[in-house]
């Protein structure tokens, strides 16, 4: 069997997590000192600041097609 056209999906670009270093430092501090230790407050603040500055991604959703697909079940 031969295919005329071979369709492939493009590779997804793996983005590096921007706050991975702060998250690692937070987990390392928790492992060494305990979760409720006051020593980890600075790393927790650094992680919170990093996460606050992340850009938000808005996914465009075509609501018309969504509602039409739901109505098709009733026809």
From TrEMBL:
It comes from the Eukaryota. One of its GO terms (molecular function) is structural constituent of ribosome. GO terms for biological process: mitochondrial translation. InterPro entries: Cys_alpha_HP_mot_SF, Ribosomal_mS37_fun. GO terms for cellular component: mitochondrial small ribosomal subunit. Signal peptide: none annotated. This is CHCH domain-containing protein. It comes from Linnemannia schmuckeri. The lineage of its organism: Eukaryota, Fungi, Fungi incertae sedis, Mucoromycota, Mortierellomycotina.
């Amino acid at each position: 069997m031969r295919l005329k056209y071979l369709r492939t999906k493009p590779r997804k670009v793996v983005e590096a997590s921007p706050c991975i270093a702060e998250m690692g430092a937070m987990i390392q501090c928790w492992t060494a000192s305990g979760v409720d230790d006051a020593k980890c407050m600075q790393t927790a603040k650094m992680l919170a600041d990093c996460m606050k500055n992340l850009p938000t991604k808005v996914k465009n959703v075509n609501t018309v097609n969504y509602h039409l697909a739901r109505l098709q079940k009733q026809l």
